[in-house]
Amino acid sequence: MGFIAAIVAVATIGGLLFGYDSGAVNGTQDGLRKAFNLSDGGLGFTVGSLLIGCFIGAFLAGRLADLMGRRLVMMLAALLFLIGALVQGFAQVQWLFVLARIAGGMAVGAASVLSPAYISEVAPANVRGRMTTVQQIMIITGLTTAFVVNYFLAIAAGASTNIFWGGIEAWRWMYLMQALPAAVFLLALCFIPESPRFLVAKGRHEQAAVVLTRLFGEVVAKAKLEEIRGTFDVDHRPRLSDVRAPGTFLRPIVWAGLVLAVFQQLVGINVIFYYGATLWQLAGFTEDQSLLINIVSGVVSIAACFLTIALVDKIGRKPLLLIGSAGMTVTLFTLVYVFGNGTLDADGQLQLSANLGTVALIAANLYVIFFNVSWGPIMWVMLGEMFPNQLRGSALAVCGFAQWFSNYLIAQTFPIMAAGLGLAVSYSFYGGCALISFFLVQRFIKETKGIELEAMQG
Asked: What does the pLDDT average to over 411-431?
């Protein structure tokens, strides 16, 4: 178990970088606007270009993982993280910065699907949920670390646009700091084994036996090797077309994965993440206080994930998803009530009373807790384990693409919806999606707690 814990720890560094790269942009907007002379639209595209890379990277990683191996593709992602961080920090022209940001996004997308898949393929079934949930903790830790680093860099320099170490502006250091964990991730990946499921898929049975023996012991390894061999189609290696069943567009299990991938975003979590500071200021807090609240929310989110670790292998994945959907529905519609009862100032901006502001703050944090106890980690846990061995990589390519494309659409449409329809209507949409997700989980999602990967049906 110590060896398994060690390689899981290495794999989840990808989650840390996933979170850090997503959060690093917070606090750099003034520097980007000044350095590249950006309009509001140009700034939005420059910042959002990360998500374009994410859905490309998620799709490519799922396919490449079947061709090249889980570990090698994670190493390529680590290299992209490293190069992307350095180029974003030093870029003097916008097009180069955007290319580096897309490259970093490809690494984020790749890490998001491969780290949980790799963990699922090396961890025993009875602790697989707990091991994979560590990925979500690392994602939030990465986000929170980025918030903390950015906060202290800005404080130390006096402002994010001021010159700091080495004659380089503080906002550039916010990107450069990511190079350190990226280098650690790349180096650490050299010391972990390839997934035994991938090795069997490639016909490298002797190597797979060696890895399985290190993971489970010689006696268990022999039986496990035969079980894994029996789950692969003898007629062909894993391929993208495996996601289809004869006479249908997609297999039912892939549709179930798409439900999880898409609705994790449709419930609006990244509206809280990307635009949380705006919400806190509406609630009456200053800009500095809003940045600190983001850090506190990150800590609360990590604590919620520890609750998931305690429960996921005991009560299962599906009950946690149902609890999360119900809790998010109630808290989102509480925010709808708050926004619907706010007033407008002379500039047409929403203003909340002290009481309504407090309710909004409590509801938003409860929403984040419900998400991070359920849909946040459980979606990644299930995508990593729910598919049969033959189609895991291909299904992850499809579902990972859908997850990140949905993320992109939510991030791009929220400012338009909020400006044109108002916050109350916008949050009604996210609340409605949370309510729908409850019934979709109840109808289409099957429990995977304690089931060996070789027993997954598709």
From this structure: 83
